[in-house]
UniProtKB/TrEMBL annotation:
Record keywords, A-Z: Transferase
Entry-linked CDD domains: CHS_like (cd00831)
Protein name in the entry: Chalcone synthase
Family, as annotated: Belongs to the thiolase-like superfamily. Chalcone/stilbene synthases family.
Length: 384
């Protein structure tokens, strides 16, 4: 009888949201009010806020809930009042650590893992920077070992959460005693721009704040409802370098998202999924909702049922795009859906996209119980 290989899996997931809720209709109204002197921009704002698939988001900045005349982040003629990048980074430094701690503690509890058992810490963010960074704060506040291997992934964009998952799987493959804690925190709303430019309004329409975390290691008998991790793939899509741009400006970070992104992903990604391998079409699709159009492009390309993309669109609807943190929100929501359905085992794919254009993807298998049945033991088909 063949021996069962250790199951490398996401054994715990945690998420956290800041306290301030942004209703999409109300946010659109206030931005339109700020654009009253620019009818073309106001019409564009109404349209994009209504069509982007977001109903609510969360922010760490209470000023963003104020009326247009009192909010320095809203479009305005007097640019002297606009928060500088330095001021926004001060808010990021103050607000990012508590949010990251909340998500990390939830992930450790979900994985039934003590902080001192963590051997590697990967911190992920593209919406702010300071030193000593979030990684150092987490070591101290969580009680991680001072010698924990710290790996910050900074300024990589929306795909970085998935990049961290793939990297963690590779780390545990090389050392089965490793336990990796990934913590992603993004405060995207701090970079809402005070302008009526279409690119800025598009970004302002669907990005939100939040944090997510997960623990990756070899699953044991104490773990249930895990995601077993299989082969992964990272690729730069050809000819797409200028389609998604994220640069540091004087008034926060400036984002450009090309309207061609959904089409380009639909054109290029199927070949990359095929290169990752697999004879059967995946059942599970954990798609990072970088925008409603991205999810819809893949749904159309693969003929996916609404149920298969419901976790991605549900996260986009309820909290918006939280950049790198979003993929774990999606996987958590998908896990809840599978538990409600009483699913024992289902295989699929998790994937995310970022500047480059970068596509990051990994095979996943949801397993309700990490203790294999006798039949599974005999077949011994776990992925190493």
């Amino acid at each position: 009888m063949a021996a069962v290989r250790p199951m490398i899996a996401i054994t715990g997931i945690g998420t956290a949201l800041p306290p301030y809720h942004m209703d999409q209709a109300d946010t659109a109204r206030r931005i339109v009010d700020a654009l009253s002197s620019n009818p073309d921009s106001a019409r564009w704002a109404r349209r994009i806020f209504k069509q982007c698939g977001v109903e609510s988001r969360y922010t760490c900045e209470p000023e963003l809930l104020q009326e247009a005349s009192a909010c320095r982040y809203m479009p305005q003629e007097d640019r002297s009042k606009v928060p500088s990048t330095a001021e926004r980074m001060a808010v990021y430094k103050r607000e990012s650590v508590p949010l990251a701690l909340s998500a990390a503690r939830a992930a450790l509890a979900d994985a039934k893992m003590a902080a001192e058992q963590i051997t590697h810490l990967i911190t992920v963010s593209c919406t702010g920077q300071f030193l000593p960074g979030i990684d150092a704060a987490l070591v101290q506040e969580l009680g991680l070992m001072p010698s924990v291997m710290r790996i910050p992934l900074t300024f990589i964009g929306c795909a970085a959460g998935m990049k961290a998952i793939c990297l963690s799987k590779q780390l545990v493959s090389g050392d089965r005693n490793a336990s990796v804690l990934i913590v992603c925190v993004e405060l995207c709303t701090l970079h809402i721009q005070p302008t009526g430019d279409r690119e800025a309004l598009f970004g302002a329409s669907f990005f939100g704040d939040g944090a997510s975390a997960c623990v990756i290691g070899v699953a044991s008998s104490q773990h249930q409802h895990v995601y077993q991790l299989g082969d992964d793939r990272s690729v730069l899509l050809p000819g797409c370098a200028d389609e998604m741009i994220w640069e540091v400006g004087n008034d926060g970070f400036d984002l450009y998202l090309s309207p061609n992104i959904p089409r380009l992903i639909g054109d290029h990604v199927p070949a990359e999924v095929a290169r990752l391998g697999g004879d059967e079409p995946p059942e599970l699709w954990a798609i990072h909702p970088g925008g409603k159009g991205i999810v819809e492009a893949l749904q159309s390309k693969y003929g996916l049922r609404d149920e298969q993309v419901a976790p991605s669109l549900g996260v986009l609807r309820d909290i918006g795009n939280v950049s790198s943190a979003t993929i774990l929100f999606v996987m958590k929501k998908m896990r809840e859906q599978l538990q409600e359905q009483g699913t024992e085992r289902a295989s699929g794919l998790a994937l995310a996209f970022g500047p480059g254009l970068t596509a990051e993807m990994i095979k996943i298998t949801y397993v309700a119980s990490s203790v294999p049945s006798k039949r599974r033991t005999e077949n011994a088909h776990y992925v190493s």
